[in-house]
Amino acid sequence: MPAPRTVLLTGAAGGLGTLMRGLLPAHGYTLRLLDVRPVEGEPDAITADLADKDALREAVRGVDAIIHLAGISLESSFDKILRANLEGTYNLYEAAREEGVPRIVFASSNHAVGYTPRPHGPAPHAQETLIPIDTPRRPDTLYGLSKSFGEDLAQFYWDKFALETVSVRIGSCFPEPASVRMLSVWMSPADGARLFHAALTAENVGHTVVYGSSANTRLWWDLTSARELGYEPQDDSEPFAAKLVADQGELDPENEAHAYLGGHFVTDPPIWPY
């Protein structure tokens, strides 16, 4: 579809939001910023909670699309996850439906499939071992469960109301990978902006789910559905591999935290009360 001019960026004060604030304008976007916290250096940003339905309705009014990054991005109690990630995402979709916003790019997560065993063998990056996008969801945390809910919510709003979504199962988007596991799931900030741009402009996406990572040599999952949007990743984590492996060692398949896509999320103790 034609490139949207004005895009609402929720979670604009967060780590990923801050990166995208700096990168997306170069792709031709005017950003309207929203976060529950003030956005440093952005006096026109909207400070509002996802529970504030009137503020959300006003925030989405007149935008061409939404990139939804807001919410809790780590494990937390069920009550907090419920309010921010489930109810908050629902409130945003309702506001978008009411105001006629045609498309949302939803920040899902690899933790929606975190209990999926990671590829093993001598060539885990070989095409035949890559994890497909239609692998059954196996969330590793309440956080991952909330991202599964978000994907289902997106499907429902497409089927019921023709509101399009690209759900991006983000790996780890930082300036550089910080662990050996991250070598397989890392998405450079520049590739993140390229992927969001593709998700905003591809035609007839309905509800499309994609993995979000760079073209890593040690890649674990299949990027076909992302490439079909027009995404062409340019970066690879391998230049960081030697130092990380020297410091941390290779992944050990006997270590449960290394055996699944979700990494330490599958082994961290739960946060009580659930």
Distance between the termini: 42 Å
Number of helices: 9
CATH class: Alpha Beta
Please give the radius of gyration in angstroms: 18 Å
β-strand percent reads: 5-15%
Count of domains: 1
Please write the string of helix (H) and strand (E) elements.
Answer: EHEEHEHEHEHHEHHH
Specify the biggest β-sheet: 7 strands, parallel
CATH fold title: Rossmann fold
**Quaternary structure classification:** single chain
Strand order of the largest sheet: 3-2-1-4-5-6-7
Number of strands: 7
Give the mean pLDDT. Answer: 94
Q: How would the global form be characterised? A: globular
- Please name the fourth-level CATH homologous superfamily: NAD(P)-binding Rossmann-like Domain
Structural class: alpha/beta
Structure characterization notes:
- The protein has one domain (6-266): Rossmann fold (3-Layer(aba) Sandwich), CATH 3.40.50.
- Helix 1 (15-23) crosses helix 6 (189-201) and helix 3 runs parallel beside helix 4.
- The chain contains 9 helices and 7 strands; from the N terminus they run E-H-E-E-H-E-H-E-H-E-H-H-E-H-H-H.
- It has a 7-stranded parallel sheet, sandwiched between helices.
- It is of the alpha/beta class and 274 residues long.
Quickly describe the structure.
The chain has nine helices and seven strands.
Please give the structural blueprint:
Layout: E1 6-10, H1 15-23, E2 30-35, E3 46-47, H2 53-60, E4 65-68, H3 78-99, E5 103-109, H4 142-161, E6 164-170, H5 182-185, H6 189-201, E7 207-212, H7 224-227, H8 241-248, H9 256-259
Parallel strand pairs: 1-2, 1-4, 2-3, 4-5, 5-6, 6-7
Helix pairs in contact: 1-6, 2-3, 3-4
